[in-house]
Amino acid sequence: MLGALAHFAFGAGCGGLFALALARREPRVAAGVAYGLAIWAVSYQGWVPGLGIMPPVHRDRPGRQAIMAAGHVVYGTALALALHRLRRGGRTPA
Among 11, 22, 33, 52, which residue has the fewest nearby CB atoms (within 10 Å)? Predict the structure, then answer.
C-alpha cells in the first residue's frame, strides 16, 4: 500500500512539473504522451532499478514493458487533457 501511495504521489508531483513546464503553452496530448513515456524510460531504466525496486526494462518479465509503457501513455494523455480542462474552467476542448 505504501508503494502505491508513493507511486501516486510521484505521479502527482510529475504532473505539477508538467503544468509548470507548459505554463505559457497549450497542453497537447502528444506532449503529454511524450512526457509520460519519458518518465517511464527515465524511471524504469534509471533510478527504479538503481534503488533495487524493480529490474531494468530489458530484464523485466516479458510483456510487462508494453503494459508499463501503455500505462504511462494513458497517464500522459490524461494529464494533458486534465490540464487543458482546468485551464478552460472546466469546459471541454473545442
Answer: 52
* Confidence class for position 92, pLDDT limits 50, 70, 90: low
Angstrom distance (rounded) from CA 51 to CA 71:
21
CA 35 – CA 19 distance, rounded (Å): 11
Dist CA 62 CA 92 (whole Å): 38
- Break the chain into its structural domains and give their ranges: 26-94
- Cα gap 93→24, rounded to integer Å: 17
Q: Which three cell numbers stand for residue 1?
A: 500500500
Of 73, 36, 42, 37, nearest to 56 by C-alpha is: 42
Model's pTM, two decimal places?
0.85
